[in-house]
Design a protein that fits this description.
Number of helices: 9
CATH class: Alpha Beta
Structural class: alpha+beta
Helix content: 25-40%
Shape: globular
Number of strands: 10
Strand order of the largest sheet: 1-3-2-10-9-8
């Protein structure tokens, strides 16, 4: 009996072919995947850089305070020049004080002597109110009520408003400085606690000659200050010692807008900036301000002249002093950059 050979399974060849195709497919996939990975590398996630002080946005103040000079030196040559100017008018006494904020150089010609302040008393009044704002005792947007006891004549238009008129504190301090409104000044003195409170505040700043004795307008000159007091006060403001940066910038902005520009501003060129406040009564005329020069220098000056009644020669002397000071300081070395 002859045994028949077993039939070959038809499935096996097909399975073999299928297996070969799978192996080939896997190989092609690996090759293709490798090629794609080569030509299209996976994106790299970069961690954000660490934040540094220079990466943090900063708000540049209107004025950047300069570091306080380590030493103070008298500017003797400039003192001689100013004395030469004032000697030409012996019946007019000009008290002058200035400080160069870069070098610490100063001039003091009778600048420590008390003299009638006229409207320059409004500078420390402004500083006192802004201090109260910093302390949370007052707000710029609060409404002040015009009362009969503060209304006075001479400078300003608030005197013509009816009793009971409401005006914001910001507008009041602005009018007090830019148009020297006397009624506005009395409103602010009242708001900070009255004359005695104001005087105590001035003493706390070591302003030994600055005293309010009567409400504005004080035409007889009983209220006093000194050029040194005013310069030292503005220097403390500029250095950030008694006001916050925000209030300092507010003060500078208001004082930049002073309308009467017939004294110190006449001695500086148009590209220089001055934040200042004038004062003018029959017996006294003066000005005090911070001057920024185009070369980066900054100085503070006050010149107050005691004069025969309304004598305009005093005004001209202050203009000449301002011009002499500016020219002299302009020729001095420029400030060195401050290292961080």
């Amino acid at each position: 009996m002859v045994k028949k050979a077993p039939k070959k399974s038809v499935f096996l060849p097909f399975f073999g072919i299928f297996l070969q195709l799978v192996i080939i497919g896997i190989g092609i996939s690996v090759i293709t995947g490798t090629s794609i990975a080569f030509f299209r590398p996976e994106p790299v996630v970069v961690a954000p850089p660490e934040t540094t002080p220079t990466d943090t946005p900063k708000t540049t103040p209107t004025t950047s305070p300069l570091p306080e000079p380590a030493t103070k030196t008298e500017l003797t040559e400039l003192t001689t020049k100013i004395n030469a100017l004032t000697k030409s008018q012996p019946d007019i006494t000009v008290e002058t004080y200035l400080t160069d904020l870069d070098s610490g150089g100063y001039v003091n010609i009778k600048g420590s002597e008390a003299i009638a302040s006229a409207s320059m008393i409004k500078i420390p009044v402004l500083v006192a109110f802004l201090q109260d704002v910093d302390a949370g005792k007052a707000r710029l947007d609060e409404q002040l009520v015009l009362s009969k006891d503060v209304i006075v004549g001479e400078s300003g238009g608030l005197q013509y408003e009816p009793v009971g008129t409401k005006i914001s504190a910001l507008e009041t301090i602005t009018l007090m400085i830019i148009i020297s409104d006397n009624t506005a000044t009395n409103m602010i003195i009242k708001r900070i606690g009255g004359i005695e409170e104001a005087n105590q505040r001035f003493l706390s700043w070591d302003l030994t000659s600055t005293v309010i004795r009567n409400p504005l307008p004080d035409l007889t000159g009983t209220n006093t200050t000194s050029p040194e007091d005013l310069v030292n006060l503005l220097s403390m403001v500029e250095q950030g010692k008694i006001l916050s940066p925000r209030s300092r910038d507010r003060l500078m902005d208001i004082m930049h807008r002073t309308k009467t520009n017939t004294l110190l501003p006449q001695g500086i060129p148009p590209d220089a900036r001055i934040a200042h406040k004038t004062g003018d009564i029959k017996s006294v005329v003066g000005d005090a301000g911070i001057i920024d020069m185009p070369n980066g220098k900054r100085y503070i000056i006050s010149a107050i002249a005691k004069r025969p009644s309304n004598d305009q020669r005093a005004n001209e002397l202050i203009r000449q002093i301002s011009r002499t000071v500016y020219t002299h300081l302009q020729d001095m070395p420029k400030p060195k950059p401050v290292a961080n």
